[in-house]
Amino acid sequence: MKQDYAIILMPHVIKMMVALPEGEDGMSSRKTARIWNYLTLNATLYCMLVPAIVLVFIFNYVPMYGLIIAFQDYQPTSGFWGSRFVGLDWFKLMVAMPDFKQILWNTVVIALLKIVIGTIVAIVFSLLLHEIRSKIFKRSVQTLTYLPYFLSWVIIGGIFINILSTNGGLINNVLQQLGFDPIFFLGSNTWFRPTVIFTDIWKNFGWNSILYLAALAGINEELYETAVIDGANRWKQTVYVTLPGISSTIILLACLSLGGILSAGFEQILVLYNPAVYQTGDILDTFLYRMGLVDGQFSLGAALGLMQAIVGFLLILLSYKLAERYANYRIF
Amino acid sequence: MASKIRSAMNGMGAAILVCAVLIGCNKPDNPIASSSNSPESASSAASPTAGNTAGNTEAAGDAYQKFDPPIVLTQGMRASPDLFIEGHSVDNNAYTEWSKNVAGVVWKSKWNAPDDESHAQKLTLAIASNDLPDLMYAPQEKIQQMAKAKQIIPLDDLLKNNQSDIVKYIYEEANRAEGGNLYKPFMYDNQIYGIPLYVDPVGPYFNWFRQDLLAELGAAVPTTLDEFESVLRALKTKYPDTLGVVTGKTGTTPLVLDAYGAFPDIWQEADGKLVYGSVQPQVKEALARLSEWYKAGYIDKEFVVSDQEAKWAAGNVFAYTTGWWLNWGSNLSLDQNVDTAQLSVMPYLPASDGFIGRFTPSGASKSAFVISARTEHPEAIFALNNWQMDSAFRNYEDLTQKFAFKYPPEPVQEPINQAELDELKGNGANAEQLLAAQKFNYTNQGPDKGDTNGFFNTYTNHGVRFGMRFNQRAGELKNAFLNGFTAMKNGTVDQLSPYDYSIYKQAYDNWGEALCLAMLDGLLIMDQFRDKVVRDQFFGAPTPTMVTKQAYLLKIRDETFTKIIMGEQPISYFDEFVAQWYGNGGEEITKEVNEWYAASK
């Protein structure tokens, strides 16, 4: 969480520090004076950014040197410098696993669907909620929907196992009333992924919609009035006024979530999966978890984490570049 | 003016915010930070080294050393807080008092984990940060890791020179009971690094079943797997919602596996070589049977996710094949939940034509006590063990005739503060707390004096592992149960030996008569099948290919079993699995295991 806060603010930090008014003749003394002016004027803002910068630096940048263990056969007593260097062996080992392709595919599919569908659901929900007039109703709905976010998957997983049971579970009862056969959701390879995605979205959409609701509140009322004058109905207003108004938030959040593409929700999958659905449900993190049970696999864990981070970083870069080019979205 | 003040206030406010966050951003729950800055790491180094050899009241090498001035030893503890009565804690209780006063050893816990999982985490952290307590209890793989990294010391010399004769004798006895394999899992480079906690194998598992349901069906106790199946069939017609038997998460149960001689988790001997249980043809037959049962509804259709033990405790399952300790858990709940429930134990059932075996897990646990390489006084740990074992075993006639004990034998007494104990029990104290609160009136020579808590009398039963300890002698607990319950049945309880009586009493108080009788059935059956024992023949450390491939191989095995039983794959899929197993590392693993086997003979 702290990292999210820091990451969100970082671009703005840099923007503020970099977007300085240019001196007309470019003379350095003028520039220095302007920079100093700018800094002192916005001193409080910079002070507010210091905690974020310090946090990110200490907890995210400094420990990076520890990644070296991904390239070693790490033994705690030998420490970082004494452990044997093995280069890319751990990565080769991971990729050589017979089911690696399947696991990678599972991870990407589940994560991608969660991000895409989750974003759509959160946006639609916040659009709908934004229309509600009654403040009390709005507030209570918001609170109820973001409550599940705070519960751990151990609890929610247990609840869902019960609800989805073929033997007295709520969902299957309804299905049987409607004349269908009961479905063993958590034990069937066709249904496991949809179940995982659906339950994850159910848990998180309330929380995710908070930011969108805030962005919606920031759209200028006058724009709506202008649109009405131009003859736009509700739907056209949504498409041409509302969505463009929150587009920067949407793109930002989508970019950031893409960074987590290779972590498809370890806790949730661990609670819900079982041998019957390894084929579609086993992800990189659960695979590593089982490998780590045989031996204290520090190096392998670091290698996997490094791989996830690099892929995530590349994806953020890529999506940002795309957004910059096609959606005119700029951070810098 | 006002705006200048305002901007000054803003600046100050921002500065305060910054300071507050920077101060508060110290992560207090960082476990490495909190455990490694404890003064204990300095204390064992700070213990007065100069005074020790001069100050010992006994000569060095004496099995019962007392340290004067006292030394400090650290231990990684695993003790749930509700084991202690009011005023006591992990670092302050009857044992630590005794240890300080009599042996001159002050125990400090470096950490105290309330359950196994957090203990495992704390241990991993301690290994990673290279900050180990003097004495710890660690699983086999971690011991190999630590031995390789020279974080723990080999114990061969200490075992030879620092154990009292009694302790040596008892350890050899246990080693014989284990077929000479007591220390094998904890050896590295041909040296012993760990001493296991030895708990007598009362039995591998019992085939618990509901006697009352059987009586309703009017059937006899099944003696073969087919008979059992016909009971299940009758049960299904009468009670369609009751399950036949509890299974594991992959749908198997020892009840069926044993019947075909299938032991998927162990390495068996065949023609002088070791082979892996999961890929043997017997497993195929067992799986076929289980998939039929799945179709017929005898086993839970949702066995991959459901909580079957809860169903057993609620009375909705007919049979459950698991350890004798079920009496401490679900059986007790079952007793409370279903009035008419009556438990009994079936014999081990052969499949219609055949071979049955019984896999006996070793009495030595797969974890052991290890001593850190930074310890100043490893002999202190052994000395304490000598004291403790001396007191714990002084009532054994066969031992008192052979050895000179430090403490005279005394018959086991009832506690003198029974009224107080009853009151505590009424207030909700659990069994462990009651044990710790007992007071006795032993003679002055013994460690359980006058009005101190009867620590040693309860030593073998106390849930907290202080120091290194070796729980029981081979066969001790099982015989105690057997003698105790037989006496209960025959009404000759007053003729029991003190140890047998104490074990019997504890069981009787907690389980009630019915469960004790059920347990007796199980023990007698176990004795009957005594020579059908099958043991895991591999106790080395994980081999190199195991480290990399085992997770994958276990995954496809679990997948295969589950799919075949659930009917998603035909039984012929098993042959594909066997080919996959061998092709993806199983062949190398088998070779490595057999290399170990040949070398260890």
Structure notes:
The complex is a heterodimer of chains A (332) and B (601). Chain A is mainly alpha-helical. In chain A, 71% of the residues lie in helices and 1% in strands. Chain A contains 16 helices and two strands. Chain A has helices spanning 2-18, 28-41, 43-61, 79-82, 89-96, 100-131, 135-146, 153-163, 170-177, 192-217, 221-229, 234-258, 266-272, 278-281, 284-294, 298-326; strands at 72-73, 84-85. A two-stranded antiparallel ribbon of chain A has the order 1-2. The longest helix of chain A is centred in the middle third of the chain and has 32 residues, at 100-131. Chain A is flat and about 65 Å long. Chain B has 601 residues and is an alpha/beta fold. Chain B has a four-stranded mixed sheet with strand order 8-11-7-12. In chain B, strand 4 (187-188) and strand 5 form a beta hairpin. In chain B, helix 21 packs across helix 23. Chain B is globular and about 70 Å long. Classes of the chains: A mainly alpha (332), B alpha/beta (601). The A-B interface holds A 43-44, 47-48, 50-51, 54-55, 58, 75-79, 93, 97-99, 161, 165-167, 184, 186-187, 272, 274-276, 278-279, 282, 287, 290-291, 293-296, 298 and B 7, 10-11, 13-15, 17-18, 21-22, 25, 124, 127-130, 141-142, 145, 148-151, 249-250, 301-302, 304-306, 542, 546-548, 550-552, 554-555, 558-559, 561-563, 566, 568, 584.
Which keywords apply here?
heterodimer; A: 332 residues; mainly alpha; two-stranded antiparallel sheet; 2 strands; B: 601 residues; alpha/beta; three-stranded antiparallel sheet; 25 helices
Nearest-angstrom radius of gyration of chain A?
Answer: 25 Å
Number of helices of chain B: 25
Q: Quaternary status of these chains? A: heterodimer
- If helices are DSSP runs of H or I spanning 4 or more residues, what is the number of helices of chain A? 16
Number of beta strands of chain A? 2
Largest sheet of chain B: 4 strands, mixed
Report the largest inter-chain contact.
Answer: A-B, 40 and 47 residues
Q: Please tell me the overall pLDDT of chain B.
A: 78
Residue runs with pLDDT of under 50 for 5 or more positions of chain A: 18-24
State the helical fraction of chain A: over 70%
C-alpha Rg of chain B (nearest Å) = 28 Å
Instruction: Name the shape of chain B in a single word.
Output: globular
Mean pLDDT over the residues of chain A:
84
Strand order of the largest sheet of chain A: 1-2
